[in-house]
Amino acid sequence: MPAAALVEILVVVAVLAILVPPLGRYIAAVYAGGPAPGDRMFTPVERVVYRFGGIDPTSEQRWTGYLRALLAFSIVGFVLLYLILRVQGTLPGNPVDLAAVPAALAFNTAMSFVTNTNWQAYGGETTMSYLSQMAGLTVQNFVSAAAGMAVVVAIIRGIARVRSATIGNFWVDLVRGIVRILVPLAVVATVLLLLAGVVQNLTGPTTVTTLEGASQTLPGGPAASQIAIKQLGSNGGGFFNVNSAHPFENPSPWSNTIEYVLILLVPLAFPVAYGRLVGDRRQGRVLLAVMVGLLAASSLIATLAEVSGNPVLTEAGADQSASAAQGGGNMEGKEVRIGAAASGMWAAATTSTSNGSVNSMHDSFTPIGGGIALLSMLLGEVSPGGVGVGLMGLLIYAILAVFIAGLMVGRTPEYVGKKIQAAEMKLVVLYLLAAPVVVLALSAVSVVWGSATESITNPGAHGLSQVLYAFGSAGNNNGSAFAGFGANTDWYNAALGAAMFVGRFLLIIPAVALAGSLAAKPRVPESSGTFPTHGPIFGVLVAGVVLIIAGLTFFPALALGPIVEQLSI
After folding, report:
1. Residue 496: which of 516, 476, 524 has the closest Cα?
2. pLDDT digits 0-9 by tens, 449-462
3. Of 226, 435, 448, 569, which alpha carbon lies 20 to 30 A from 18's?
4. Could you tell me the CA-to-CA distances from 48 to 52, 146, 421, 453 in Å, in that order?
5. Residue 496 near residue 477 (C-beta atoms within 8 A)
6. Structural domains of the chain, count
7. Domain limits at 40?
8. CA 230 to CA 26: how far, in whole Å?
9. Alpha helices for 87-123 (secondary structure H)
10. 263, 128, 265, 259: which is closest to 194 by C-alpha?
11. Where is 89: in which H helix or E strand?
């Protein structure tokens, strides 16, 4: 592995080790309901929002009310964003006079950003006006991320509370997540990205003369501010068409490192917050260890696969060895300033979270490298997953793991003092089935239905990987894609939009119901028969359950896609 890649890994690990614990403690204080750091600054802002929205911050909601508020907020957000996109040609903030976004694409994009998927079947600089980018897409980057954070906080309250009929107030959780966490972090991140050379202006495209004397038009726009929350909020939707592979979004190894840290920062901080909110920091540490272990494994495999090069290119006479003149490895579809190693690391991180941004084209990865990116999404994005929703998914797996452990010893399972019974397990099963069913069903239709197959640019095993990757990305609210796959058709705009809806809301519904069920339960005192859920054995069990569930569900499809493609070369 190149020395520069090793340095970047060490820098990322060191920065995360420094920032994650205090951020986790801060997040816990924000959602705990008592005094929190920054009250003097943030409380007046929150009061204005509550007064304007008619919100009583002292009232709490049952899980049904919490869920209704979240769904209503999401529906209104979807409608408003869809309307902005459909009439953007008549609105200001459109320096290049871009036309309205077509209906099917507007539906897909609105559903994508409201569900925190940020799938993009369009080129940002050629499709979206500055107003659409700022008032539409960037706003959803904040609020959809904050909604996901609110859901996991509701689940944590369900675990922590005893005989409680309520799980908090969605509107308060939403506002505090935006005002106290996402906005301050985004401001700092924007400044860092500006210093690293990311573009931020409102002047429109600029025509310049190149060194060869040719004329070239360079796109501009408010990119840095959108990139900051795109990475922090596990959004991933880029300002420009090729996302973080674009030099105006990610101009150097330094900006690449900054954005890589931003992708992982908040998801890794949530287990720390969880341990504090349930009153047992060990519970948070074991889940954090599971996240880091799965992420490290996928990062190592993907990076080594790309650094080792593509044997097909070697047979064609391409030199993929590292030297003073080149970084080496499989450089097809990658940026020279970033290299194969940093591209592999990013691919693993962005698909292990529900981020979805790319600094290289995953379609050009080796089969095993692209397969790891695909598998990372199909795990349910729990390694570490997105902001809030990653921990939500891992808590579901933890409950399933403790249920399995209870069956093995013939005892009613308990998790953090709460008995896990039939009602909870039904909700867990609904959660675990929703995304896989829609991913596999729609992928199956797309590889046999005539007009849908026209979008597949590489028939055969790689073509199946393209389709499965698209629906795996949509169904798990990731948003990344295999470049080269023609997604901007009526079928894929509608089908992927449906997968995004299922992957977001048909998981959130049982998760919030589970929070209400757990909150109403009494706490059971520990006994000699209680299975400990704070040690390494439980961590291994949770990781094993995650891998087994994904393997049983998706291995046949993976075997026909990236696995057989890798074996064929």
Report:
1. 476
2. 888 888 888 888 99
3. 226
4. 6, 18, 43, 52
5. no
6. 1
7. 3-208+217-314+322-568
8. 21
9. 103-114
10. 259
11. none
